[in-house]
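Tutorial handout. Part one gives the primary structure; part two gives the three-dimensional structure as tokens.
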Amino acid sequence: MDKSLEGIVTSEDTKRPIRIPPGQYQTIKWPVLHAGSVPRINLDRWKLDLLGLVEKPVSLNWQELQAQPHVRVFADMHCVTRWSMLDNVWEGVSTRHLADLAGVKSDAKFVIAHCAHGFTTNMPIADFLGDDCLVAWSRNDQPLDPDHGWPLRLMIPKLYAWKSAKWLLGLEFAATDEPGFWEQNGYHNHGDPWTEERFWD
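Part two.
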């Protein structure tokens, strides 16, 4: 292993002999893609809520989130619009830590990410709890900029990038699935880039 990656969680997908999924091309520049305007967020009022099927609902302000154990993750990013960006080091708090903090109940099978402007996206809890999954505030030692989800975005490397929702405000643990904005507008409900789950049939 590259010594620069010691102490970093390494996504299993980065170990594939071919790291670009079918139908994708590699980009160096990070494209900016989203619907609507970039939200104006005041960190003094911002919070991350952990709610739904949990033993104890949690609401973390920015300072409280920063006080949680940090994790760094080496992972690629694949967008449904066909670009792939390799060799990213994300920093933030692991999704497993957040789930443990709230005490997620055993009947929670899905996670609904709630974001600014009312956007949501959904995923099975097994995908959310992957070793390489986190809520991230930086990439390659640089804070996220507003176009890319500042102050916090979800990072689920094994799924297409729309599941790594920008401008994250809450994580809801649920017994039933609830397709979000993009899923209700034609995007696949799961979003595995390796099997090209781009759109609903």
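Part three, for discussion. The mean pLDDT is 94. Residues 43-188 form a domain with the Sulfite Oxidase; Chain A, domain 2 fold (CATH 3.90.420.10).
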